[in-house]
Amino acid sequence: MATKKINQPNSNKDINYYKKKFWRVFAYTLLGILAFFLFASWGLFGSMPSFEDLENPDSNLATEIISSDGVVIGKYFKTNRSQLKYSDLPKNLVDALVATEDARFYEHSGIDGRGTLRAAFSLGTNGGASTLTQQLAKQLFHRGGSSFLPFRIVQKIKEWIIAIRLERQYTKNEILAMYCNVYDFGNYAVGVSSAAQTYFSKDPKDLTIDESAILVGMFNNSSLYNPLRNPTGVKNRRDVVLGQMVKAKMITEAQKEKYKAMPIALKFKLESHREGTATYFREYLRDYMKKWVAENKKPDGSDYDIYKDGLKIYTTIDSRMQLHAEEAVSEHMKNLQQQFFIEQKTNKNAPFVNISQAETDRLMMQAMKNSTRWAIMKDLDKSEDDIIASFKVKTKMRVFTWKGERDTVMTPLDSIRYFKHFLQSGLMAMEPQTGNIKAWVGGINYKYFQYDHVGQGARQVGSTFKPFVYATAIEQLNMSPCDSILDGPFMIHKGRHNVTADWEPRNSDNRYRGMVTLKQGLANSINTISAKLIDRVGPEAVVELTHKLGVKTEIPAQPSIALGAVDITVEDMVAAYGTFANQGVYVKPQFLSRIENKSGEVIYEPIPESHDVLNKDIAFAVIKLLQGVTETGSGARLRTQGGGSGDNRWTGYPYMFKNAIAGKTGTTQNQSDGWFMGMVPNLVTGVWVGCEDRSARFKSLTYGQGATAALPIWGYFMKLCYADPGLQVSKSEFERPANLSIKVDCYSAPKVKDTTATEQNTDEFEL
């Protein structure tokens, strides 16, 4: 007993000692953990996002090109990522994501304590513990994971800290939206918006439950669960997501079974710069944006990056009208191309017509030197002889055809000649009152033919130049569409108007009509009439007016310009004709409405440019002249259904338009270029058709003239526009100025005596 009494105090002392030691160790450990978290939050273990970073995370967003009707028609990106608001996400996708990835998302504050303890006690074998907020933190601020355990622990702690900060900074809905915007779904699709377009060709709001389940399944591992490479695995993962939705009571068991029975149905469409809608316009815009970013800086003085700053470029292009224009070009060009190939079968130097072997060799050599093959071999220090020899060796390649791409074997030299066979086209449509460009088609296929025939390529305009001569004559000489002039042989002698040799223009049909009105002269595109008018006003006056109309080309002050021996772009021609439709006021074509940053703030808004060129009366007189072209002249087939020579190549014929149309066809020497300029009161459209090389052409006017080569595109395009009531393309008359001072109603029918009355009636009609 005595011994026990003696040992008791020591025993108590030992217990107290261990208690103190335990609490000391516990306190030090707790302080160490707190210090560790504190040091991590201060960035001692690697940089941490600041308050500003959390407010504006570097989300590497694609710049979106948006049409006037609100459709994203293209993007500029290195990473194809688009930003969505929570309201843009379909509820079924949000439900599937929460049910599968973070069932207690709405309960925790960034870290799921229960899930963390479960993962710790099971050593990760019973599922991970990362919340959606932690996954977002990892995606935004340190994507890579270290294989070294201490580093991995540091990264996990940093994730926790960032997750807590994100929860304080954003609402749950904002966190969900951010997470859906940053995940990489593969195939260049980052974010739900891009993934929905890439895999299903639809907007996120239109995703069905099973499609949402597929995308949510990909959140687990987009490389493993890629629908293109692993459809079986994707189906199994989708079914797991559907099961989680049943468990969370978001769908019923019956719904789950219904969706499980459905196959994986994709509408895969890889978004690229070379495909999709308005490819030529998007490239033109990209070029413009390169200059824009050099002149417009961010508030902090740094440069905008169109590939990752998430700008929104609002354009004037109407996506519906653009699709109609692309369809019209495609349908007519594939039709006309058949005829071109038929003609070239008997041409030993196809597609070139009436040129020497030396000129042919020059064109082919120039094409070789402009090719990618030449550039690559030149960089490899190959000799010119070796490079030329390589163009004569057969190789496998993929070529463009109007029936789709085709794999074949041919020499690169033969492929150059093959591609030179293709007829090209350029189309631009614009609202004359605003200058807003509504459609832009720069060629037949951007992937294979990058040259833009709207804004980049100027070609001879032929008779479409004549209205500028007539407008000058009406303004300078006070003439009217009803004034008469003699169609007969005419010559401008050497020395007059700086001509270096006698110039005697001839009519395309080699005949003369005698006395005709100006309206008849333009309707029938009579060359002698245009020549006589430019002789009277002088070519300098015509050049001056043409430049006022917005044509930027340098034009020689020579009488021959009256017949269209001038190179002008489709864009400038549309702007010039638009001046007539806009009562004599030139409005510079514009393709931008505004540019916003990723926060939706307007950072640029263009100021429209316009100036007066002609008074209303003269502009209207020119419109009446141009209406004569579609009533009785070279554009009359827009109103007929009788057909004629080559009518099987008038795509979309008969057109049977009955509304007011002002227009002008144009055909250059040897049928190298075919044009049609067509106008209704609120839409001016220019169309050009021709081959890349002017020596590649139709042999006759039947198919090479503007009325056959270009006019059908306009007719087809307008039929589609009129069938689309949402576009509101006008069928009204052109606005007639009040107190019109120029006579435009030219002829009166003979007076017929009414036997039942003494009064005689006069009916006026226009030619």
From TrEMBL:
Penicillin-binding protein transpeptidase domain boundaries: 428-682
Catalytic activity: [GlcNAc-(1->4)-Mur2Ac(oyl-L-Ala-gamma-D-Glu-L-Lys-D-Ala-D-Ala)](n)-di-trans,octa-cis-undecaprenyl diphosphate + beta-D-GlcNAc-(1->4)-Mur2Ac(oyl-L-Ala-gamma-D-Glu-L-Lys-D-Ala-D-Ala)-di-trans,octa-cis-undecaprenyl diphosphate = [GlcNAc-(1->4)-Mur2Ac(oyl-L-Ala-gamma-D-Glu-L-Lys-D-Ala-D-Ala)](n+1)-di-trans,octa-cis-undecaprenyl diphosphate + di-trans,octa-cis-undecaprenyl diphosphate + H(+); Preferential cleavage: (Ac)2-L-Lys-D-Ala-|-D-Ala. Also transpeptidation of peptidyl-alanyl moieties that are N-acyl substituents of D-alanine
Domain Glycosyl transferase family, chain residue ranges per copy: 71-245
Keywords: Carboxypeptidase, Cell membrane, Cell shape, Cell wall biogenesis/degradation, Glycosyltransferase, Hydrolase, Membrane, Multifunctional enzyme, Peptidoglycan synthesis, Protease, Transferase, Transmembrane, Transmembrane helix
Pathway where it operates: Cell wall biogenesis; peptidoglycan biosynthesis
Location in or out of the cell: Cell membrane
Transferase in keyword set: yes
The keyword Chloroplast is annotated on this UniProt entry: no
UniProt cross-references to InterPro entries, sorted A to Z: Beta-lactam/transpept-like, Glyco_trans_51, Glycosyltr_51/Transpeptidase, Lysozyme-like_dom_sf, PBP_transglycosylase, PCN-bd_Tpept
Family in the record: In the N-terminal section; belongs to the glycosyltransferase 51 family.
Protein's UniProt name: Transglycosylase domain-containing protein
